[in-house]
Amino acid sequence: MDAISQRKLVAAVAVGIVSKQLYDIYGYFFEHNSGYSSTTLIHWCIIYICFFLSLWFFQVERLQFRFLAIIVFSILSIFWNIGIFEVTKFLHGEPYSLTILKNDAPVVITQEKESIKIDHNENLGSHYIHFVPYARGVFNPNGDAFCISDYNTKVEVPLLIKGVPPYKIKYEFTNFNTNKTTINEHEFSVTNEKINIDDKPKVRRHVLPIKAPGKVHLISVSDEIYGEGKVDTKNSKDAYIINCPNASLTESFVEVCVEDSYDINFLASGFGPLNVYYTKKVNNEDAILNMFQSGTISKENDVQKQHEIRDSIHFDFPTPGSYLFKIATVMDNLNNTVWYTNNKLTLSKIPGYEVFSNNAKDISTLINVRPKPTAKLESKDTNLLLNQKAKVKVILEGTGPWTITYAFLEDKTEIVPELIEKNKIVIDNIQQNNYVINIDKPGIFKLLSVTDAYCKGEILLPSDSLVQLIYPPEVEITKEPIYESCPDPIGMRFNVTFVGEPPFKLKYSYTNENTGESKIENIISNQSRFIFNGTPKVPGKYAYSFLSLNDANYFNVPVNITETTFPVHPPSDAIFLKTDKIYSCVGETVTLPIRLSGTGPWSLTYDILYGRIRTSKTISNISSSNYDLITEKFDQSGSYSYELSSIIDANGCIKNIQHSSPIIIEVFGHTPKAYFAGETDESRRQYITLDDPNGVYLPVRLEGKPPFDLNYTLINEDKLIVDKSIWNQNALLKVYKPGVYELRGIHDKYCPGIVENPRQFEVRGILRPTIEIVENEVTKICKSEDSCILSRTTICENESDSLGIKMTGKPPFIVKYSITDEKGKESVFTETLSQYDSRLSLYSKAVKGNYTIKILSIADANYSKPSKVNEVVQQEVKSKPRASFITNKKLFQCVGEDTSDLEIVLQGETPFTVKFSYRYNGKHDTFEIKDINTQIFKFSINEYIKDVGIYSFYIRNVIDGSGCIYEEEETNDKAAFVEVSDVAKIWSTSAPEVCVGDMLYYTLSGIGPFKVYYSLNDGEEVPVTASDNQLKLRTGEPGIVTITRACNVMGCCSKPIGLSHVIHSWPTAKINDGKDIIEELREDEGDMGKIRVDFTGVPPFDFTYSHKILNVGIHKSSDINSISPQDIKSEKQVSIVGINDYKYVFESSEEGLYMVSSISDKYCGNRQSYSNQSEEKVEDSSNTKDKKTGESN
Questions:
Q1: CB of 614 within 8 A of CB of 591?
Q2: Does this entry carry the keyword Membrane (predicted)?
Q3: Last residue of a domain, one of 570, 588, 607
C-alpha cells in the first residue's frame, strides 16, 4: 500500500473513532442509553491510545512521530475524552463524575452541576404494573418419530413450554401393543435452575418419557403461577413411537474358493422399506460403506406393525483373502436409525431418532477366500539308474491334504493323448508339499490335475517329465614308469579312460611299503581321458590301488583294476626358506636357512656373485634336511647375490637346482653418525623454567638409514637415556631438567654408528619474576629496628589512587593484590601488566577509613604459577566535609514581615568555607561565608530578599580544615525555600438568592492554595481549601451563607464585607405516599393501572416521571430497590407541568415501573434534571379533573 493510501486509511480510522463517540452521545441523549457511564469513558480512552500507538508502530509517511510524542498525545487524549464526557453529562443534567463531600458541614465543596436529581435513598414510592401471561406448550415441534428396542427401553419426546415452572400437562396415549387409548398427566420441574416468582415467563425445553410403542397427543398445559395455558396446535405434532428396526446375518463364517460367487443371507424387521448399510473390508484395506434397500413400502396406518424381511446379497470373489462383511446401521421408513458401530458414518439419508446397539450379535460374516492350489514337476527330465527307481518330485502349493492325478506312458518318449485315460493314476491324502513318485521303468510322466483340502487347482509347467535309463560308468587305466637322470624311476605315469556321464571322480590310494605311510586322493575330470603322474617325494616302494568311481548319475561304483607296485627314487633338491632382500653392514655375517629334499647325505654347491665376480663353494656331508648357511664377514660394501647351483644325493645322482630363487644381501659400508645442531656454544643453549611441565626440545642431527636408536645422558645424573625409533634425521630431543646433555651412541636401521662433536648441549634454568614498590610511593615508619611499616600519603574520600611498582621477569606480568578495610573486609584484585614500571589501581572512588594494601603474588610469561610476595602498605582515607540546611522546609511570610534566618549543619574539620547560590523570579546569584568554626551555623538572608516571590537557596561547595572539598549540584530536595506572599482577596459571581443544591461561585486573588471560611445562619466558621483561584460551594440546606474571611497558604488573610447568599428549599413529589406498589393485570383484558402523586412545596408544580421496561419481573416491593442498570430494557420520561393541586393521578395500560425523576415548584427546580430523553410537557388545568400526559420515546 502506498503512502497516500495509508494516510487515507488513517483518516478513515480517525473518522470512525469520532463517529463512535458521537453515536454514544446520541444514544445517551435520545435513546435512553443507561450504559453511558465511566465504562464508556474508559472505552474512548483505550481506542484513542491504540490509535496513537498504531501510528507509531506502522510509521505512516508524514505521520511519523517519536514515541515520546505518542505518549504526550495519548495523555492529552485522556483529558480530551474526560472533558467531552463531563460536558455531555453537564448538558444532560447529571452531576459530574467527581464529587467531594464534607459530611460535618451543611454547605459542602463539590464539582457537581447546578441542579440535582431526585435522591431515591429517600423513599419517594413507585408503582409497578405487571401483565400476567398464559402458559403455552408446543409438543414434538420437529414432528420426529421414535423407536423402542432392547437397547433403549424408553424414549424422550421433546416439549417446549413457555411459563414459570413447575408445569403440568395432559396427553392422550394409544398403546400399539394393546391398542388401548388412555389419558395421562405428567409434571415438570426445574432442578438445575433457580426459579424466582418475579421471573418473566421464558421458553424451556422438557422431555416426556414414553416406555411403550404408541401414539402421543398433547391435550393441555398449565403452570403453577398462571394456571391453565394453551397448546400451540399449529406447531405441535403427534409423536409416533414404534419398534426399532434391526438386521442380522445368518452366517458368521464361510469359506469359498477364489473366482467363486456367494449369496450372503440376512434377516431384518421394521417399518419398511429398510435401508441397510454395511461395510466390506478386504484383508487390511480400508472398509467401504455400501447400502441396499429391502422390503416394500408400508402403508401409513401400518406404522404399528413390525414387518419381517428376508433377503440376500450376491458377491463375487476375484482375489483370495479375508472378506469381512459387517452391518453398520439400519434405517426404517420413518428414519429411525439403529447403529451397530461406535463410529458414525456418512449416510445417504439424514438419520432421525438414533439408537446405539454396541453389543449386537449376528451382524458380521467373515468369508475366507482360498487361493487355487497348483502343482508342477521339479524337472523336465528324470534319470532312471540301473536296478534303482527314478524319483519324480511334484511341487504342490495350497492347503493339504492334496489329491493329484497323473498318467505314466511306459517306454514312450512323447505324449500320446489316446493312452492318457487308460494309464491315469489318482493319489490322494498327500500331506507334504514336495511329493516324490517312484518310477522303475523308462517312459514319460504327465501331471493331469490337482485338488487341495478346499479348492480344485491348476497344473503349472513343467507338467511332464521324460524318464530315461542310465547305465553305470567304467574306467580303463594304462601305466608307464617315469625316468630322469638316474637309472631308477622317480614315479609312474597313469593314462585313464572314462565311460559314463561327466564329471568323473576316481578315488585311489598309495602306500609306502618301506615306511607304512598311506594316503587317499581323488582325481576329478570333466573329460573322458585324463593323465596323472604318481611321483612321491620320499623314496621307497609304493603300491597304488584304485578304489571307486563316480559320475553324474552313479556314486561309489567299484573299480576292477589290479594294484600297481613300483620303486620310487625322487631327485634331490634344495631351496632357500627366505627369499627377501637382506641388509647388512661391513664386518658382519648373515645366516641363510636352506631346506633339502631327496636321499641324504648331500653335497651342496652354491655361487656368490659380487659385481662381475662369481665364486663357487661346496658344502659336503649335509645330513639334515634343514641347514643354516653362515656367510663370511663382509669386507666391502655392495650387493651380494647367493644362488644354489647343484646337489648330489646319497645315490650319487646330481641335480642342477633351477627353481630356487637367489638371495640378495645389501651390505652398507657407511657409518651412522649423531651430533647436536649449532655451530656456537650459545646456539647450543636452551632456557627452561624451573617447574615447566612442557620441557624444551634439543636439535640433533642423525646420519644413516632411519629409524635410529639414540643413547644420551644428563651429565650430572650419569643416567643413560635410550630414545628408539627416530625417523627424522633432524630430530628434536625433549628434556625437562636444566643441565648439560651428552650424546653417547647411535644405531640406524642396519648398522651401529659413532657420536661426533658437538656432542653436548646446555639447558639453563630461568629465574622467577620479582616485584617491589617504587621508593617515593611510600614512607617507611619504624617504631624500632625490627618493627617497621610502609605508609602511603592520606587521600580524601571519592578520590582515585594507584601504587607504583617495578618488576623483573618476562612480560606480561600478572600481579595479585588485596585491599582490606578497617572492618576486616578484604577485596582481592588481579591485574595484567605489560611494562616493567607500572601502577596498581587502588580505588576509583575511595571510602573513608584505614586500609591495608597487600601485594600477594606475581607471575610472568615464563612462570604461569604465581610466586608469593609479602609487601604490606598502610593508607588512610579521610571523609569529605558535608553541609545541609536544618531549615530545609518552606518558610512563608507575608509582605512587610521580617525574614527568618537560615541555619546549616556542618561535618568535617574546622574551619569551614561554604559557598551558596540562590534563585528568585528567574534570577540567579551566589555568596560565600568563610572561617566558620562551629558545626551548626545560622546566618541572615535579609540582604538577599528583594520582592514578593519564592526564593530557593542552595549549598554549592564546602572546604574543611583538612583541605577536602565537597561539591553539590542545585537540587530542590536539598534546598531551602522562602516564599514571600501578599494577602488573599475574594468576591462572588453568583446571584444573591439560590436554591438548595445550586452552586455558589467565588473568585480569589493572590498565591494559592487558599483557605476560605464561611458560616451558615451566622453559626460556626467552616474552612474550605481551594487549590486555585476558583471556588465552588454547593448549597446543602435552606438559610443564609456568609463568607467571613479568605487566606492564602501562608496565613495572609482578608475579611470581605456583606458577601452573603439566601438559600431556598426544594419541593418534593411522592408516588403512593412513598410506598412501592405492585399491580398485576391479566393480558388481553384491557385493564389500566392508576398512579397517584403527592407534592410538597409552593404551587404550581412541574414534575417528570420515568417509565422503565424491565428484563426481570417484580413480585415483591423489596425487589424494586435492588434493580440494576442491566435489569432495565428501555426507559422513557414523561413531564407534567402547571399543576396547582398537591395531588395528581394518571392511568397507564403499559407494563413497567413508574417512578418520579424530577420536581420543581414556584421557586426552585425550574431546570430539569434529565437530558437523554425527549420530553413533551402537558399543562394541568385547575378547572377540570382530567389529567393530560405527554410521552416520547
A1: no
A2: yes
A3: 570
